[in-house]
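User: Fold this; C-alpha cells only.

Assistant: Input:
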Amino acid sequence: MEAYSIIIGLIFIALFFIPIWLFQRSQNKESRNLKKSFHKAVSANGLSVSDFDLWNNIYGIGLDPKNNKLLYLKHGQQEDYTKVIDLGDIAKCSIERKTGKLPANKGASPVTEKLALVLTHSDDKNSVDLLEFYHESVSPQMNGESAVIDKWQKMLSIKLGKKYNDTLEPGNNIFTSELDRWEAGIMLSIFLIYSGFMVASEYPG
C-alpha cells in the first residue's frame, strides 16, 4: 500500500500546484503583452526611450531624454491608452495620493485608493496631465507602486529644475513583481508538497 500512499500524495500536490502554474503562466503572458504594447508605442511615436518602468502588467512609463518627451501607457484588454508629453511644456511634477478610511486597527496606515503623477503645464497652472500609477479598482492591493512613482516624481522634478538630495539611479526596469510572484509560488508549492506527503502518511500500507 506504500505505492498507493505516494499516489494519493501526488494527487494532492497536483490539485494545488496546477492552478498555481496556470496563474504564473497567465501572469507571464500579460507581462509579455505589456512589453509588446509599450515598445510598439515607443516606435509609433518615433521615440528613443532610455529609462522606463513597467509594472503591475498594466502600466508603463518611459523617458526620451534626447527629445525631452515622456511616454505613458495604460494597457487595456481592448485598447491601450497612450500619452506623449513634451516636458518643455511642463513646469512642475507632483504626486496625487488619495487615501480611504483609516483601518479599524490602531496604528495602521491609511488605505491608498489612488496614486497619480501630476504634471502641471507652464502656460496654465490649472492645466495638468494626470498619469495613473495605481487604482484600487484595477488592483486591490499595492505592490511597489509607491517606489515607482517616487522615483519618477523625483527624476522628472530634477529634469525640470527642482533639486533633490535623494540619489537616483534610473534604469531600464521591469517592475511587474514577477520575482515576488515566483518566490511566493515556490514557497507555496513546497508547503503543499510537504502537506501532500503528510496526508499520504495518514494512509499507511
